[in-house]
Fold this sequence. Notes:
Elements: H1 2-7, H2 38-43, H3 76-84, E1 86-90, E2 97-102, E3 112-115, E4 121-125, H4 129-133, H5 142-149, E5 155-159, H6 160-166, H7 182-196, H8 202-212
Antiparallel strand pairs: 1-2, 2-3, 4-5
Amino acid sequence: MALAALLAVAGCQPGDTAGHGKDGHGKDGHGEGRPSGPALAAVTSLTVKGRAPRTGYERGEFGSSWVDTDDNGCGTRDDILKRDLTGVRFRDGHCLVTSGTLTDDPYTGRGVRFVRGHSKVDIDHVVALSDAWQKGAQKWDRDKRVAFANDPLNLIAVDASANRRKGDGDVATWLPPNKAYRCDYVTRQVAVKKKYGVWVTRAEKDAMKRVLGGCPETELPVRSGIGQAR
């Protein structure tokens, strides 16, 4: 199946190397003179183009929300909640998450309680669907867009208020307030954009290099599967 092929990836995962933000290495944060790690090197392979119009974008272009692309009987949202929360409780014993705790929200560094129906936790597309739409996704077929929207590599549980402030911003316009997570955040954006062929703007590419210049040895994540810690 096309979805299975697009979602089947293997390798290391985010969190294997700690992010350190963009300060502390080099006078201007670019890490000049230091060896480039795989994530930083991968930035150079990303295609640079201007942002296309948002015309025609709607969430439905990426399929129904949180479909079961891996055929495990659970929607993607619950899969990510199970992966990222601690103390998880279920309504049906294995799938429908009713409560849990995001013990270390990547965007704010705070603990956030999840209670279904009253949640302060969102499942964020690290590379926003609208951002992808304006940088190549409007030309994809539907299967690829559905795979992108449900790929665990591009999904993390985060504080809802921080996620709303992010909107569909890219690295040039928004970074997590939690500076300790910025390197991992940018590294994951690079991995997702490289995997799916999403292009970047010049300002975005420069911002990626600036952040990763502070952590040039960070490995490029290529897997963040269900059942694995992020």
